[in-house]
Specification:
Blueprint lengths: L3 E7 L2 E8 L6 E5 L10 H7 L4 E5 L19 H14 L5 E5 L3 H11 L4 E6 L14 H8 L3 H7 L5 H9 L11 H9 L5 H11 L1 H17 L3 E6 L7 H5 L8 E6 L5 H26 L1
Parallel strand pairs: 3-4, 3-5, 5-6, 6-7, 7-8
Antiparallel strand pairs: 1-2, 2-4
Length: 291
């Protein structure tokens, strides 16, 4: 079914989202990472809409959503998760699987811990919830956490360059030619919008508060044992393989898959991952029907 591109108002912020599939089918909410948007899930929307209802929102300050001035909208993961949760409630979505990647993890786990009864499954693509899952690429962000000032912000400014965005997509891949360059060019365009650099810097700084919630997220996993599919790019400099392995401490049964690629695994291995998602969700639906 064709992907539709929509917008809706959530407390005065226009949230853009991609929607595909029949609302009568099981729902999957696709939560994107940095520096991307719902665009990163275009293959999933195209290939799974025959059997699933798919919703991929852009967070405030990302993609085609509004970019409110940071003086008017507080860019924290708490606030973004609250906005996305309100968006899902406005859509009257009460049960759904979550697909999380990068920033999608702190957004998704906040929603899951607030509403565990709504979560049917978690599909995790380099979405971290453990301190051992933070790689060497966090060095400059950790310096920002320790002391946010002009110098520590300046050290992170190259993150927003076109070359750095290309690196995020191609680092760790088997062949950079497998990655569509439209991805980082689109992200660069979005990062050129008003307030975009300030928004990202505020979120870089706030990310330290996610670590404080890791114990609560891990307890949610232990207590609720959501069906979990891991499809992880093991060469990710931000969230290496150790972040995927850590889930084995708390989840009893995991459909566990590592891929020889980088941060955006759907770019290089999308077809096989989407088939794994299809089979995983079929099992989840069958088990739910038995209950």
């Amino acid at each position: 079914m064709r992907t539709k591109y929509k917008k809706t108002d959530v407390n005065g912020v226009k949230i853009a989202y991609r929607e595909a599939g029949n609302p009568q089918n099981p729902t999957i909410i696709l939560l994107h990472g940095f520096p991307s948007s719902s665009h990163q899930y275009r293959k999933v929307l195209e290939q799974l809409s025959d059997a699933y209802y798919l919703i991929a929102p852009d967070y405030p300050g990302f993609g085609n959503s509004d970019y409110p001035d940071p003086s008017e909208y507080h860019y924290t993961f708490d606030n973004i998760a609250n906005t996305i949760n309100l968006f899902l409630e406005q859509k009257e979505l009460r049960t759904y699987a979550l697909m999380i990647q990068d920033y999608g993890s702190p957004v998704g786990f906040r929603i899951a811990t607030a509403h565990p009864d709504r979560i049917t499954a978690i599909i995790n693509q380099n979405g971290n919830a453990y301190e051992e899952g933070l790689g060497e690429a966090w060095k400059d962000i950790r310096a920002l956490w320790a002391n946010r000032n002009e110098e520590t912000e300046k050290a992170l400014a190259p993150t927003f360059t076109l070359a750095a965005l290309e690196w995020q997509y191609t680092h760790g891949t088997r062949n950079p030619e497998n990655v569509n360059p439209d991805t980082w060019n689109l992200d660069y365009l979005n990062l050129s919008k008003p307030h975009a650099h300030k928004i990202s810097m505020d979120l870089f700084y706030d990310y330290q508060n996610n670590l404080k919630l890791y114990p609560a997220w891990q307890e949610y996993l232990r207590s609720h044992q959501p069906p979990l599919l891991i499809v992880w790019g093991k060469n990710d400099a931000f969230f290496p393989e150790s972040g995927a392995t850590a889930y084995k401490k708390d989840v009893n049964q995991i459909d566990y898959n590592l891929f020889d690629t980088g941060h955006f695994v759907l770019e290089e291995d999308g077809e096989i991952i989407i088939e794994k998602m299809r089979h995983f969700m079929e099992r989840v639906t069958q088990e739910t029907a038995k209950e």
